[in-house]
Amino acid sequence: MKITQIDCHVLLDPGYDVGATSSSQDDIVVEIHTDEGVTGIGETDVNPWIARSCIQAPGTHTMGLGLAQMLIGQDPMQVEALWEKLYVGSAMNGRRGAVIHAIGALDMALHDLRGKALGKPCYELLGGAVRKSITPYASLQPEVSSFVAYRRSIVDWALRAKGLGFRAAKVEVTPCGPYAHQGLKASHEEMTEVIGEVRNAIGPEVTLMVDVQYAFPDAATCLKAIRPWVDFNLFFVETPLPSDDLDGYARLSSEQPIPIAAGEWLATRFEFLDLMDRGKVSVVQPDVGRVGGFTEAKRVCNLAEQRKLTIVPHLWKSGISIAAAAHLAATTASCAFIEFLPDELCESSLRRELVSNELKMINGEIALPKRPGLGVDLNREALERFKREASAAVSTLSIC
Fold first, then answer.
1. Would you say residue 171 has pLDDT above 80?
2. Mapping DSSP to helix (H, G, I), strand (E, B) and coil, where does residue 166 land?
3. Does 266 lie in the same domain as 136?
4. I need a surface site. Which of 86, 159, 326, 350 has the fewest CB within 10 A?
5. 26-61 core/surface letters (b: 16 or more CB in 10 A; e: else)
6. With the CA atoms of 252, 177, 292 and 302 taken in that order, what torsion angle do they form, in degrees rounded to the nearest 10?
7. Are residues 28 and 169 in the same domain?
């Protein structure tokens, strides 16, 4: 079997808002085709136009090759060897950042393709299942235009998530910092009040997590703000500091008791080694696409397990990434939850409509996928609609 073609689909939700801070409103989906008619799909969480360029750009020398250029004609069953080929061959341009994120989409598609070719779910080829089901948490981020509206909406969404059967929920509390948008401005004391209202509404039986999305400029500010949150019995506080403030993360972990989670933006196991060993986080959050695909995500999970840390994969895209996180969780004993954007509580039609056969939660759990590969299929009508939207928006979005 040989790889014959790689398609890159840049997608955009018709309801996109350039003032919002949510990457669920755009996407890149890759399809890797073979001479035997088997096709694999993957996606990654990065600017889709940038990712497409990383994949399609030609290279002129051996240490700056194009990603598609390195894959055409290769045996897609040699997934791990192809990851090394892509990493080394693009090292002068990549090693981290967008190139690794683009490799992640390709690696995800290769794992999907191999599973389909062998008639096995991805997790069976990643080491086999260590659990019978996967527990998702509802990731809640209302898109509203003021803090007053947000405060009302987040409590309502948390109650709705509980009513849908979720046993865990994460509230995005970002009225300050780089993710503050659409008028969401509030004090640290008001953040505390919101978290308290959510906890009181859902009760003690629902696991509660808080994502502040890099809200605090330094550890001292963060410590002052989150110390009252100990009373809310939080499973973790996610990304309180900039990703590169490893010493700050270490201080947070040593000077207060709430587990600290991070890793959504990181690429490769090498960045995660810094986060774990220097940053001393308790919860490690690889995003399968962004970290470099299944091949690299599994390495990160193994390193975290050696350090007795908890894994909770990040995702913020479509049912493709939900499936990828579920397969990763199935093989990882230390994986407590996977992130899950309920389509009933998501503003993005791209998130809701892109795939068919999406994994479903029943009674708070997701059963292990049974279909080969990732186990999800593209909704072709939706794919074409979102592609047209992206093409139409280029002139509007361009600064040229």
1. yes
2. coil
3. yes
4. 159
5. bbbbbbbbbeeebbbbbbbbbebbbbbebbebebee
6. 20
7. no
Contact 49, 384 (CB under 8 A): no
Contacts of 110 (CB under 8 A, 6+ apart): 32, 40, 42, 76, 79, 82, 293
Q: Which two tokens stand for residue 257?
A: 């008791």
For residue 32, the cross-strand partners are: 6, 40
Q: Quick check: 122 pLDDT over 50?
A: yes
Tell me how far apart the alpha carbons of residues 98 and 240 are, in angstroms, rounded to a whole number. 23
Phi–psi pair at 69, nearest 5 degrees: -55, -40
* Residues 46 and 129 placed together within one structural domain of the fold: no
Average pLDDT of the chain is 94
131 and 110 in a single domain? The answer is no
Note whether 205 and 93 are same-domain residues: no
Q: Are 168 and 36 in a shared domain?
A: no
On the 0-12 / 13-18 / 19+ scale of CB atoms within 10 A, 160 is: middle
CB proximity list for 255: less than 8 A, separation 6 or greater: 219, 223
* 180 and 252 share one domain: yes
Q: What is the CATH number of the domain that holds 320?
A: 3.20.20.120
3-state secondary structure 242-267: CCCCHHHHHHHHHHCCCCEEECCCCC
pLDDT in tens, 244-254: 999 999 999 99
Q: Which long-range contacts (CB under 8 A, 24 or more apart) does 226-231 make?
A: 226/256, 226/258, 227/256, 228/192, 229/192, 229/195, 229/258, 230/256, 230/257, 230/258, 231/196
What DSSP character marks residue 47? -
CATH number at 34 reads: 3.30.390.10
8 A C-beta contact, residue 43 and residue 63: no
Q: Report how many domains make up the chain.
A: 2
Strands 234-238 and 260-262: parallel
Residues 114 and 135 grouped into a single domain: no
Nearest to 79 by CA among 104, 44, 43: 104
Q: Residue 260 sits in which domain range?
A: 125-377
